[in-house]
Every structure is written in structure tokens, then in C-alpha cells.
Specification:
The chain is α/β, with parallel strands linked by helices and about 350 residues long. About 35% of the residues lie in helices and about 15% in strands. It has three domains: about 10-125, P-loop containing nucleotide triphosphate hydrolases (Rossmann fold, 3-Layer(aba) Sandwich), CATH 3.40.50.300; about 165-270, no CATH class; about 295-344. The strands form four sheets. The protein has a four-stranded antiparallel β-sheet with strand order 7-6-9-10, with helices on one face. The protein has a two-stranded parallel sheet with strand order 1-2. The protein has a two-stranded antiparallel ribbon with strand order 3-4. Strand 3 and strand 4 (about 135-140) form a beta hairpin.
């Protein structure tokens, strides 16, 4: 599974034992068999995995390997992997697919479900592309899929949008001494973001820079860690995070280690002098809540005190037909977004 279902309160080995009472042939496995096979797979797939550790204390990559080892011990003829590398760094991914290749060459039927196109290109034999729930294309050789992907990339690159992929720096300077949308010229830089949440996609060494006067787009899928990156950038990530954040204006520079947990929404909004606006992807529960009144939603940054005149002014600005004492649950998605944008 992409998010392995393990019992947090017991050890890694106890979780493995739970799923390995019988082999795929229906033969009952002894505890001794399981321990021997588990150690063999641990040495090959995840030498760092501590079988004695309680699952609640291990990282997302270790949860994946614990689940994988439990599956392999049963001797399956078919192995289905849903986003197997979502919680792994690049080195772990290469090792994972090298080991998967060995299993395939040994006769195992392996199906990999992934949103990461590079993995489909580099590591598979055949590729099926799904679009809107249907098999849109099938490639009997991954080389044909690679050629198709290259052609699509050439077409999309001609659009001319300013883009930054996770792990790459955006090019170009804003070239202005000040911007109409900024109080002063600023640059926001994140360097070597690394975070391993237990049940969400991880990030490894991600860096990017956002310049004043430019649109910086970070392109990817949620399964590739975009949600985790959003949490880090907005100061909402709870998992242990490594890396550096720097906010530089024409008059000052602020640098924080992400490990310090000092980068918070409050810091971004009020401590940097930039009055950062934050519009999260989850408008319903992170930027709002269905049980809040419209007044509470719009005045959330003002110590929870509802100012009727201020509320009415923002409602008019957003051009939404609603009263301040009505509930947020009465809003459509578009109405909610316009109100949040007006508030920010």
C-alpha cells in the first residue's frame, strides 16, 4: 500500500508476524521460518530497519519496508506495489527498483502503480497510462513511452510559463527596486528541504527560490510530496524537518533552520515585515471551517473579534451574496475562495 497499514503500538517484527501465518501456497509458516526470512529480506532491502522498534517511532520509509518484508515472506507469485517510492529518497528508490528487477527476473509478476513518470521510463518493461479512469495508452516497451514523454515535454516547454520543479532553482531576477504588489523587493529561498512524515510523501533535498515580480510555479503531484512541501513552506509541518529558509528584502535578511520550528504561519504573517498572505489548498478546514460564521472567518486574524463594518467591506470586495452571521458551510467552493482571497 502507498500508506502501509501497521499497528503503531507494537514492534516492527510483531507487525510482520501478524501477516505471515501462511505462505502463498497455504503452507503454515513457523515463527522460526518467519524470523529467518525476515532477517534475510532486511539485509537485502532495508539494513537500517530495527525489528525491535515500535512502529509509532519509525519513519515512513521504514513503515514501507516493514510492510514489504511481510508480503515477501509469504512467497507471492504476484506483487502489487502502490506508489512504492513515495516515502523514499533517490538512493533508496534506485536500490528498491534494482531489487524489484531481481524478483521479476526470478519469475515474479510485478505491477507498480506510480504517478512518477521517470520511474515508468527507467525501471519498467511495459507501461499502461490511465486518464479519467480509463486505459488511455499502452506501451509494450518502456522505450516507446519514454519517446512519447519527451515529445510532450517539448510541447509543454514552449508555453513560456515561469516554472520551478521541486529540487531546482528558478531562473531570473525581478530586476525591480520595488513592486506594486510588495512593500519592498524580496526573495524567498528554501534550501535542502528534507522531511519524512510517517503517513505522507517525503521530501529529500528540495530547493527553490521565489523572486519578487515573478510567478514561481512548483509543478508536481500530491503523491510526489506537494502537500508536504505546502506544509513546510507555510509553517504547518509537524514532522521533523531539515533545511534552511531565507527571506531577504532590500533592507534586511532573515535566515531560519527548519529544524528550529520557528517558521510558523504567525511568523510569516507578522514577524517578517512582508505581511505574508497564505491561501492553502485545503480551503474548507485549514483556511476556514464549516461551523464558523462569515464574520469569524473574515476576522480570524483580529483576535477572533468580529468587526461588522470590516466584515461587510470584505464581503463587498469579494462580491459574494451572503451575510456576516451566516455559516461558512452555506458557501460554494468559489464563494469561499473569493472570501479567503479578500481576507488575505
Amino acid at each position: 500500500r502507498q500508506r502501509p497499514l501497521l499497528a503503531d503500538s507494537i514492534s516492527v517484527m510483531e507487525n510482520i508476524l501478524l501477516g505471515t501465518e501462511y505462505s502463498s501456497a497455504g503452507r503454515k509458516l513457523t515463527r522460526r521460518n518467519v524470523l529467518h526470512e525476515a532477517e534475510k529480506y532486511r539485509q537485502k532491502w532495508a539494513p537500517q530497519l530495527d525489528f525491535r522498534a515500535r512502529v509509532v517511532h519509525i519513519g515512513g520509509d521504514e513503515r514501507f519496508y516493514a510492510s514489504l518484508i511481510a508480503a515477501l515472506i509469504c512467497g507471492p507469485g504476484v506483487l502489487i506495489l502502490d506508489e512504492p517510492s513515495a516515502l523514499l529518497d533517490w538512493e533508496q528508490r534506485r536500490a528498491l527498483y534494482a531489487n524489484i528487477r531481481e524478483l521479476a527476473e526470478g519469475g515474479m509478476n510485478i505491477i507498480v502503480i506510480t504517478h512518477i513518470m521517470q520511474e515508468a521510463e527507467l525501471y519498467t518493461d511495459t507501461v499502461t497510462v490511465l486518464r479519467k479512469g480509463k486505459a488511455a495508452e499502452q506501451y509494450e516497451h518502456s522505450r516507446a513511452f519514454t519517446a512519447e514523454m519527451c515529445a510532450e515535454a517539448c510541447i509543454s516547454s514552449s508555453a513560456g510559463a515561469v516554472r520551478t520543479s521541486a529540487g531546482e532553482y528558478a531562473d531570473g531576477e525581478c530586476g525591480k527596486t520595488g513592486c506594486a504588489s510588495c512593500r519592498e523587493k524580496c526573495t524567498v529561498t528554501f534550501t535542502d528541504i528534507t522531511v519524512r512524515p510517517k503517513k505522507r510523501p517525503a521530501l529529500f533535498g528540495v530547493s527553490f527560490r521565489a523572486e519578487c515580480g515573478a510567478l514561481t510555479l512548483i509543478k508536481g503531484l500530491r503523491e510526489s510530496g506537494l502537500g508536504t512541501l505546502e506544509n513546510v513552506v507555510t509553517g504547518m509541518e509537524s514532522a521533523r524537518t531539515e533545511g534552511l529558509a531565507a527571506i531577504e528584502t532590500s533592507s534586511s535578511r532573515c535566515e531560519l533552520t527548519l529544524k528550529s520550528k520557528k517558521l510558523t504561519p504567525h511568523f510569516l504573517r507578522y514577524k517578517t515585515g512582508l505581511h505574508t498572505a497564505i491561501i492553502p489548498s485545503d480551503r474548507t478546514f485549514r483556511a476556514s471551517h464549516p461551523n464558523l460564521s462569515i464574520g469569524q472567518l473574515l476576522c480570524a486574524m483580529h483576535d477572533g473579534m468580529v468587526n461588522r463594518d470590516y466584515t461587510d467591506r470584505l464581503i463587498r470586495k469579494a462580491d459574494v451574496a451572503i451575510q456576516g452571521d451566516e455559516k461558512a458551510l452555506d458557501l460554494s467552493g468559489g464563494m469561499l475562495q473569493r472570501l479567503i482571497l479578500a481576507r488575505e
